[in-house]
TrEMBL record:
Name this protein carries in UniProt: CDP-diacylglycerol--serine O-phosphatidyltransferase
Keyword Disulfide bond: no
Similarity section: Belongs to the CDP-alcohol phosphatidyltransferase class-I family.
Top-rank taxon: Bacteria
Keywords assigned: Lipid biosynthesis, Lipid metabolism, Membrane, Phospholipid biosynthesis, Phospholipid metabolism, Transferase, Transmembrane, Transmembrane helix
Taxonomic source organism: Anaerobacillus alkalilacustris
Membrane protein topology class: Multi-pass membrane protein
GO molecular function: CDP-diacylglycerol-serine O-phosphatidyltransferase activity
Catalytic activity, EC: 2.7.8.8
Compartment(s) where it occurs, according to its Swiss-Prot or TrEMBL record: Endomembrane system
Alphabetical list of InterPro entries matching this protein: CDP-alcohol_PTase-I, CDP-diaglyc--ser_O-PTrfase, CDP-OH_P_trans, CDP-OH_PTrfase_TM_dom, CDP_ALCOHOL_P_TRANSF_CS
NCBIfam families found in the cross-reference section: pssA (TIGR00473)
Transmembrane regions listed in the UniProt entry: 92-110, 122-142, 148-166, 178-197, 203-221
């Protein structure tokens, strides 16, 4: 039973490890790999909560662990990535500005964790997962996106995370559809940078991607069987 309850936490810890690896790749100048690892973290983050509900293994520990992983993978890692790819040219000021992103993200996560009112229809403010993923995608295609746009989006994401704007939630979208969208999107992103990064590609992608596809397939088959039995 204890092992069953720890399975969702393994996905969360995998998410956290992706964030750590992303920071390392960014510091080493492998920016595409760093961005890919953030996207892999998004895959794992989309799985841990669903696995917990599927196994009936939700716990306060898992919730807190998820927040800690999110602030690293979708807060600290994207801010380092943006700094090394663009803000570095502004010196200490650029470093300070890049550091604002995890501060806003941490506040957003803390506010969400203590919130007594929640809805499956919308989020209050942009989730840090989405904001960090957007920054990762910007760096993937940084050569074709003007720096001013990156700066504007970076600033907007900071304030949108702590805003009171209601952002539509996709929690009620059936998993097969949502999983297919995420898988296709990641496949397109990886294909776009395949030739330039294959020699130094993070090996974790070869584990995470088949695992995620297998998970989506399993949920799709299970949903079909349940519908048939009903």
């Amino acid at each position: 039973m204890r092992f069953k309850k720890s399975i969702p936490n393994m996905f969360t810890l995998g998410n956290l490890f992706c964030g750590f690896l992303s920071i390392g790749f960014a510091a080493d100048g492998q920016f595409n790999n760093a961005a890919i690892l953030i996207l892999i973290g998004m895959m794992l983050d989309s799985m841990d909560g669903r696995v917990a509900r599927m196994l009936r293994a939700e716990s306060p520990l898992g919730k807190e662990l998820d927040s800690l992983a999110d602030i690293v993978t979708f807060g600290v890692a994207p801010s380092f990535l943006v700094y090394y790819t663009y803000f570095f040219q502004f010196g200490l000021l650029g470093f300070a500005v890049a550091g604002l992103f995890p501060l806003f993200g941490a506040y957003r996560l803390a506010r969400f964790n203590v919130s007594t009112s929640s809805s499956n229809d919308y989020f209050i403010g942009v989730p840090i997962t989405a904001a960090g993923g957007i920054l990762a995608i910007l760096t993937l295609f940084g050569e074709t996106i003007p720096n001013i746009i990156t700066t504007v989006i970076f600033t907007a994401m900071c304030f949108l995370m702590v805003s009171r704007i209601r952002i539509p939630s996709f929690k009620e979208i059936p998993l097969p559809k949502y999983g297919t969208i995420v898988t296709v999107f990641l496949g397109a992103a990886l294909f776009a940078i395949y030739q330039g990064t294959y020699a130094q590609f993070p090996y974790l992608i070869y584990i995470a991607t088949p695992l995620y596809i297998a998970y989506v397939t399993y949920r799709f088959i299970k949903g079909k069987n349940k519908k048939y039995l009903d």
